[in-house]
Design a protein that fits this description.
202 residues, 13 strands, mainly beta, 1 helix
């Protein structure tokens, strides 16, 4: 049996999303990442988010295939340092997530703990989700010293058999609306990029 979102519904979804932003008084925020990884619908954060999030300058309802099926965000990003962007996302919240790195590798898909380099920076109001490479984990507790206990392969992601030390860990703020990765975009400090991000419903 086949199913689909009708053309009318696609247009209505985009219209509602834009209306909600207008009622809230702000446009979604752009965040960029500089870490490696292939984007998946299971992701809850960027791969190594970098710099501050910036508010969009405009939203529009445009057409890709059927009338009004595309949510179009525009904004200008100014890079604070020389870096190569590899992924980006749109978020409802402006604040930066808590991040750290693995102090030692994850050596199996069933390992139920991680050791971050900055244990004391992580919240103790468990549970919450984190992005570690392409895997989503749920932090369920800590040992009050150096270890976070985690559920593996969360949000329908795949539990990885090996994750190297120094891999970045990013907390989910539950507000990510869209995400994509791409071949590295190298920027110098102060460079500006006009982004147009189209999210098509189909």
């Amino acid at each position: 049996m086949a199913s689909t979102i009708t053309a009318t519904s696609r247009s209505q979804i985009v219209s509602i999303l834009i209306s909600l932003s207008q009622q809230a008084g702000f446009y979604p925020y752009l965040a960029v990442g500089i870490g490696p990884g292939e984007t998946s619908a299971t992701d809850v954060a960027l791969f190594e988010e970098s710099g501050n999030r910036i508010e969009g300058s405009s939203l529009a309802q445009t057409t890709t295939v059927t009338s009004g099926d595309t949510y179009s965000w525009q904004g200008v990003y100014t890079t604070p340092s020389t870096q190569t962007l590899t992924n980006l996302g749109l978020f409802q919240d402006q604040g930066n997530p808590i991040q750290g790195q693995l102090a030692q590798q994850v050596s199996s898909s069933t390992q139920g703990y991680i050791i971050p380099t900055n244990y004391n920076s992580w919240p103790t109001n468990y549970p919450y989700q984190i992005q570690v490479s392409t895997e989503v984990m749920t932090v369920t507790g800590g040992d009050n010293y150096q270890t976070l206990y985690v559920g593996r392969g969360q949000n329908n992601s795949t539990a990885l058999t090996s994750i190297p030390a120094q891999t970045w860990i990013t907390q989910s703020d539950t507000s990510m609306f869209a995400k994509t990765n791409f071949t590295g975009l190298s920027l110098n400090s102060g460079d500006q990029v006009q982004f147009t991000i189209n999210v098509q419903f189909q």
